## 1
Amino acid sequence: MRAWLDVHERVCRQPHGVTVADEQFGWAGANRGTETCTVAGDILLYATLAGVTGEGRFADHVERSFFNAGAACVSRDFMRHVYFQAPNRTQATGSFHAGPAGKGGIYKTKHWPLCCTAALARILPGYVQWMWMKPAAGGLAATLYAPNTLETELDGSASRPRSRSRSPCACACQNGAPTRVSP
Ligand SMILES: [Zn+2]
């Protein structure tokens, strides 16, 4: 598994964090596409790896993918999305050969096939559900950063930790408060 992830890192990881996957696996490149389904899958895979292994690098990866590739999947009003994104798009349509082909790069209310339209709904919840974890040794682990308040129970007592961060999301809505977690 680690060898396969290392191959991804070396040859097909795009600057936004997710691999090239315009329905065809391949080397990273400015005009290569990444399907919205792959963004959702990337976040789920790496968040799961962070939980299973406890390695922070996997959680770092989830933040990179979510705040870059995740944000690029959808229009600012969250009403339209792309099927494929590419790092250096100079025109609305791309040179994608599969799925909806070149038109997969256009922000639309839905794309056929409908896989990416459905997968879009998994990106935000996929991030939120992994923001906090309970390590086997006890306590809480702040895994992924974004401003939030968690209501949970620790050792039979109610706990309500709050996280404020300088993540891209936080800067837009919190005047860039420094990263901190208060119990
Ligand atoms: Zn898809």
## 2
Amino acid sequence: MHEHHDHNHDHSHDELKEAVERLKTSGIRITPQRHAVLEFLIHAQTHPTADDIYKALEGKFPNMSVATVYNNLRVFREIGLVKELTYGDASSRFDYNTSKHYHVICESCGKIVDFHYPSLDEVEALAETVTGFDVSHHRMEIYGTCPDCKTKH
Ligand SMILES: [Zn+2]
Ligand SMILES: [Zn+2]
């Protein structure tokens, strides 16, 4: 796991710059709050909820509300910068959309960890052949118990 984090750390500065560029080219105004939310998402790697981000940034921006955070996330989602992950519960989690990856989800604490694996394109091709659908995407999740929860038992 540490290897993964270090890897992301090395690139996070460039990723932030790239993301800011993308906002600019999409004609989206970059407010200090918007910049902070984006920076948090890129560094977090934890798939935070809007509430998590709000709690992490409220000290820095006393006038910010959870709604502001959510609105910013919605803007990012609309231009494809972040992915909203909904798992049927009240609070969506947000994922900075760097590259295609799958998720491993802890059934005890709900933690979501990135799992890099070549995209299963052949499944999509097969589904198209078998069903005649135009396949747009697929979603695969792996479930289990995370290392932290394993040691708690
Ligand atoms: Zn867990
Ligand atoms: Zn992810």
